[in-house]
Each structure stands twice: as structure tokens, then as C-alpha cells.
Write a structure and sequence with these properties.
The protein has helices at residues 3-8, 25-33, 47-60, 76-85, 102-107, 119-127, 151-161, 175-183, 193-196, 205-213, 235-244, 250-257, 261-267, 291-309, and strands at 14-16, 38-41, 65-70, 90-94, 111-116, 132-136, 142-143, 166-169, 188-191, 219-222, 229-232. It is of the alpha/beta class. The chain has a single domain (3-202, 282-309), classed as TIM Barrel (Alpha-Beta Barrel), CATH 3.20.20.70. Strand 2, helix 3 (47-60) and strand 3 (65-70) form a beta-alpha-beta unit. The radius of gyration is 18 Å and the shape is globular.
């Protein structure tokens, strides 16, 4: 038992990232059933679709699970009401001010975790009353911090500032990575990219295969003027870079991005014109596996790596 397994009442301190277009009820329930904490990604769901996923997840697991809510998306008030109505016990918030919804959620008996990319925002989240922090480094896929602080440096800096439990995210897909994060001060880890390439991920098979094919250097952070996001370097990414070469306005970037670009890429499988969000760690993901197998593999590797550390006696 540690601070995270105690807080969430789970077996292993592994949290599945609530990734848009990847994290439906099948993935969340599979991770929870395997001893981690599964999260439904509300960011890509209309309110009633979210309700449906929550209800299905309840039927598929008796274990704790949660919902990840990026606060920059529309329908936030309706989403929060549904979360309370459906009796969700854990909510991860991101991309917004934690003061906005933390009190409301906690008044309804919900454990609240906020995702940050800096120690400054970690302190603000702690002051807002959240129960734990996810500190996400520059390596992570999807939306990211502008500061470009890596996980290796972010975790100890956040740990130094806060008193509540800390979850490390960004660049973690193995048991060794999990051990490294916990040695640096994390109480648990959040894993995104590895679960995006799982059997139960709701992503399109084209996207899953692309994750497997990604090599070192195939992703890059871009679109900082809108919301920083790490993308695979496909045609859409190259179009963005070409536009940057012309010194675009924010409006021109918004026009190029258009609507539903992430859905087009990750959910519908358009590898050319779609937005393909994944972390740098994809370079060591070589196989699509069931979520339970991923967790078992991580825990076995974590334990071996922990024993190996004992031999590093200088």
C-alpha cells in the first residue's frame, strides 16, 4: 500500500491516462479490473455519450474507476452534473483552473486530481483543495505544457513544493520507468501512450499500428499558440510547420486545425490529414497487447528493476 493505492483503493499505483478518442469504457474497465485505475476520457464525448460510458463501465467492473475532464472543452457544466448524477467517485481535471470545479466535486464526495506541467500550477492546485497532483512532463503525448519541462526534472521539483500525493506522467510505459519516477518522488504513475496501443483502446487500428511504427524523433510539440500538443510528424503536422514558416496569425492556425481533426486521426484512422497525438515513449512500444497484460508486464519489470537497484552499491 502507498499513498496512491490507498487514495483510490486500487492494487497497483498505475493510472491509465484519460486520452481523447482512446479511453472509453472498455479500456477503463480493463485497467481497473487488472488492478490499476482506469479513466474514461470525457474530452472527446458529448455529455450523453459520457453518461453511457460511465454506465457501461459500472457494469464491466466493480473496481474503482474515474473520469478525466479537460476543462477547456465545451459542455463542462453538463458533464460535471452527469458525473455527480452517475455517482462517479474519482475525477481528474486538466487544462483549466482547478478552483473552478474542485469545491463542487468534493462537496459531492468525489476525489479530485488535477494535472499540471509545473510546480507553480501544482501549488495552485493544492491550494484549491485537490486530493492529488499529476505532474506531466514534456515527453507526454496530447496536450502539454508550454514550459517544456521534462518528467525527470519536473517530478522532484513538484515533490519539493507539495504535501499531497504525486503522480508522475510523461514518458512512462515500462516498469523501469515507473520505478525511476517513484525514486524521484512520485507515489504512482499515469500511463497514456502504452494504453493507447492496447487491445481495449477505442482508437482506430490504423492509429494503433502507427504508434507501434513510431521511432525516436517521430513526434514533436507544436501549436503552442492554441494549446500545445505533441503530434506524430504526418502530412497534417508538416502542413502546420509550413504555415509556421510564413509567420501565421492565431486565426490562420485555427483555420488550418479546423474541426474534429483529432477525431479524424485517432478515431477514424486518417493518418494523412488527421491529428495523431502520442508521447515520445511510443518509440519503445512494439506490440498491441491487452491492458491487463500491460499492467502485469509493468509490475513484473518494476519488481525486477527494484531488486537490481540493490546491487548498485558504490
Amino acid at each position: 500500500m502507498n499513498a496512491i493505492t490507498t487514495l483510490f483503493k486500487i492494487k497497483y499505483p498505475i493510472i491509465q491516462g484519460g486520452m481523447i478518442w482512446n479511453s472509453g469504457h472498455k479500456l477503463a474497465s480493463a485497467v481497473s479490473n487488472a488492478g490499476g485505475l482506469g479513466l474514461i476520457g470525457a474530452g472527446s464525448m458529448y455529455p450523453e455519450i459520457l453518461r453511457e460510458h460511465i454506465q457501461k463501465c459500472k457494469k464491466e467492473t466493480s473496481k474503482p474507476f474515474g473520469v478525466n475532464v479537460p476543462m477547456l472543452y465545451p459542455n463542462i457544466e453538463e458533464i460535471m452534473k452527469i458525473i455527480v448524477q452517475e455517482g462517479v467517485e474519482i475525477v481528474f481535471t486538466s487544462a483549466g483552473n482547478p478552483k473552478t470545479w474542485t469545491s463542487y466535486l468534493k462537496e459531492n464526495g468525489i476525489t479530485v486530481v488535477h494535472v499540471v506541467s509545473s510546480s507553480v500550477f501544482a501549488l495552485k492546485a493544492q491550494e484549491a483543495g485537490v486530493d492529488a497532483i499529476v505532474a506531466e512532463g514534456f515527453e507526454a503525448g496530447g496536450h502539454n505544457g508550454r514550459e517544456e519541462t521534462t518528467t525527470l526534472t519536473l517530478i522532484p521539483m513538484v515533490k519539493e513544493k507539495i504535501k499531497i500525493p504525486l503522480i508522475a506522467a510523461g514518458g512512462i510505459a515500462t516498469g523501469r520507468g515507473m520505478l525511476a519516477a517513484m525514486v524521484l518522488g512520485a507515489d504512482g504513475v499515469q500511463v497514456g501512450s502504452r494504453f493507447a496501443a492496447s487491445v481495449e483502446s477505442s482508437a482506430h487500428e490504423n492509429f494503433k499500428q502507427t504508434i507501434i511504427d513510431v521511432k525516436e524523433g517521430d513526434t514533436q510539440l507544436t501549436l503552442k499558440e492554441l494549446a500545445p500538443v505533441r503530434l506524430i510528424k504526418n502530412k497534417f503536422f508538416r502542413d502546420v510547420q509550413e504555415l509556421y514558416g510564413k509567420g501565421p496569425t492565431k486565426a490562420e492556425l485555427v483555420e488550418l486545425l479546423g474541426r474534429a481533426r483529432a477525431k479524424r486521426g485517432m478515431f477514424e484512422g486518417d493518418l494523412i490529414e488527421g491529428e495523431l497525438e502520442i508521447g515520445q515513449i511510443a518509440g519503445i512500444i512494439h506490440e498491441i497487447k491487452p491492458a491487463a497484460a500491460i499492467i502485469q508486464e509493468m509490475i513484473a519489470e518494476f519488481r525486477i528493476a527494484k531488486e537490481e537497484r540493490i546491487r548498485f552499491d558504490f
